[in-house]
Amino acid sequence: EIFALSVCQKNGLSxxxxxxxxxxxxxxxxxGTFLGTLSGSIxxxxxxxxxxxxxxxxxxxxxxxxxxxxxxxxFLVIISMAASTLFTYLPGLKQLSSGTMIIILTVVISLAAxxxxxxxxxxxxxxxxxxxxxx
Length: 135
Hints:
The structure is a single chain. By secondary structure, the chain is an all-alpha fold. The protein has five helices and no strands. Helix 3 packs across helix 4 (71-89) and helix 4 packs antiparallel against helix 5 (98-116). The two termini are 23 Å apart.
């Protein structure tokens, strides 16, 4: 959520903006974790299974708005999906755990995106301009 709010800022980011988001998000995450743990021990298995699907839906909801507005982000999402599929089926790569796969793909794809599609700095503030708008 912090990433989604930060990436959609039309102007440069201030550290205080990020601190404010974190100050609001951390107590909510802690309470959500507590309530999730509590409900996980109370709710039936079928409902808990549905919660796993809800988690993926939440990630899609975070990624789709920037991907629809920025063709580069959309392209990177498609590349990520294709690379994830390769990791699932290619010999040698399919033996990696899902956590390791996510870390490798995140680092490699974000590094490639940073090199191939750098964010231009503003002349007046010399801060990176991060936004959800198409370039």
